[in-house]
Amino acid sequence: MSIGGSDLDKAISQLRACRPIPENQVRELCYKARELLIEEGNVVGVDAPVTICGDIHGQFHDLMELFRVGGDVPDTNYLFMGDFVDRGFYSLESFLLLLCLKVRHPDRITLIRGNHESRQITTVYGFYDECLRKYGSANVWRYCCEVFDYLALGALVTGAATSLPPTSAPLADNANPDSFPSDDSEIEVETLNAQGEIMYRYARNSDSQSSNPTSNPASSSPIAPTPSRTGAAGTGATSSANGSKSNDTGAVLCVHGGLSPLIDTIDKIRLLDRKQEVPHEGAMCDLLWSDPDEIDGWGLSPRGAGFLFGADIVKCFNHRNDLSLIARAHQLVMEGFKEMFDSTIVTVWSAPNYCYRCGNVAAILELGEDGSNAGFVRRSNGERGGGGGGWILGSNVDGNGNRRLSSVLGEGALGQRARDGPGRRYRVFEAAPQDSRGMPAKKPVADYFL
Amino acid sequence: MTAKEIPNLRELLGPRRGGLSRDRGRGRGGPGSPREGAEALKDNAVRGTDQDAAGSRASCVELGYLHDPYAKLFATQTTTRRLPLLNRGTYVRTSAIDLLVDKFLNTSPDTPKQIVSLGAGTDTRYFRLRDRYPETRIVYHELDFPTNTAAKLASIQRHAQLHEKLTSKPPPNPLTLDQTATSYFSETYNLHAIDLRSLTSTTDNVTIPSLPNLDPTLPTLILSEMCLVYLKAATVSSILQTFLEKYLPSPTPVSLILYEPILPNDAFGRTMISNLSTRNIHLPTLLAYPDLGDQRARLRSYGFVDGARAADTEWIWKEWVTEEEKERVGALEMLDELEELEMLLRHYCVAWGWRDGGGEGVFTKAWDDVAERR
Ligand SMILES: [Mn+2]
User: Where are the annotated segments for Disordered (chain B) (predicted)?
Assistant: First the structure.
């Protein structure tokens, strides 16, 4: 049989109900997906508006909650930064659903590879066992692993707006409107809860907030996470010292882990041979395993793979590649997202109450569309979805359309001011309600080593 | 979660093997009472978990985290590889307690010493210590619920490497055990089948159970690894009063090492409590002593007036484990769950307190230089 058209829609609705599809359909789906993915470069180009998501880890019901909060495919354009599988109970259903959506709406969903999309890691962290349990053989696991090898290593989002349009969204109960910027200021960051109510809002300005990117008090409340960024707007990034327009934002690089000492330009990522199992070391490994840390330069990673990298590395890389932001996943953050290094890098985590144990909230990051983006050719067949999930900047914004898909090398001295970051709307959500999880008779039980 | 992970969860229940049974109280809800059915089910679940604690230790040993030739002898199931996070946690907890025990045994090594392990389950420490300290006279006591002591004795009997260590007498070893034995006593190893709550002393008139071979004068280290945490705070206090005043009256030097969860009030802690309560597991002392300061105060209140220290296991990993050892352990497995591991480790602590008169007291000498989290 072939999976396409109505078969595909049938598979989607079956998977949406958290029911696995037959093995022959998985084979067909994986084949189709590979045909699609093989055409993508190592770094996929994605146009804003886009909703960027972090780790899912087989938490299927929380993925459904994510779609509820962020909008459905194809209405919302999604970018998932890997780690679809392992740890949770429903890696299979989660990954296959995302893959079906990819095949069905290739231009409305982008999947890049996480360090768990690997044969070795999935045998340790659960996906292999889950496939064996659900199909009685490792065939499905093998099909999926073949798809993993074709997933892109990163994505480059262009055309994102620098500021958020004013919304009429209601305020959350626990919001403090007095702390909100005035109506005429440019909104750089907004945090909404799962009901779409505004919890925090920050203006882009040069001195009203103190810059303290490290202060990220661990919130004890999953309901009202402390904003992880504290005054990125105060970094001077928006001063008009060089006369740049305020909506002149660089591209956003999305990658699962982070940077590599072997990679100083995005073009070098493009040159990698990605169609293989994730190696134990080297550039490809680093992109999927590394973490930002409060250090200078590079450090050894306690994970045993990848590296730690400091603010200087990020700022230098962003400058060299004309990026305004790196979005990455890979690390659990209790508040769902965490901006670091003067908002030059953000961690987005999309698995609430990770492993049914951690008590964290999850987040997704929405980047709006720069008004100038409209005329830009989409990367594939040009089909545009409904766009209902995205948000369009008002026409008053003077987009300059200055896109920077190619890296800009050696332009300007280091220390030149960074590009303005894109306007960032975070939607924060909690784990799907217990009763909607449709858990099997055996309830999930979290591990506690005792 | 994966088949591999399920045993990890059960490992949690492992130490409970004493806990739930103790809670149940052997006299309460006699045979045939409505309670009995549900309790028996729980007991079965608990019994089924006992092997998993041993399995976790075996996983750690197999991967090279710990050296323990005895772990696999108590694991009747084939060893299932545990998640790296759990292996690391088991490693930190075991090596932290080993460090304190080693320092105790290395202080005045010619003096006999006594160790009392509460809710010991399938713990292998006695056997490891016999290898490590062949010259030191150690009187070792393990207290646990009869189902667990019986299972342990059965394992011991199956393996010559184990039962040849039960006495210090030279071979041929006269050990023969009754099939139904639940307790065992020798001059060096004692397995007491006992409900810990029978050690509470409410009035002076109540006679406390006899613990054969428990020497009232030897410097004694009491160990509770996830054991007392399942009892009410007042019960724990009373049990320790019995030890400190009756079994081991002053001036006998006595110390206590606790391994327990802490921080019940943050997101992780609240989730832990709610996850466990759906499984009918309650950790009363976690709520009674939420942080490290509370743990220290608690130790002092029991009468450990010469020292009362505490550190969470994340800090212990960072501060007690040498860089060289960290590198060795870190290289054993790729560990992806780093943030989770740190959070998990932060929610468990080792607390240790002692009463020995200070100065030249054996515990003061042994532990004075062991840093705690300030
Ligand atoms: Mn990851």
Answer: 1-53
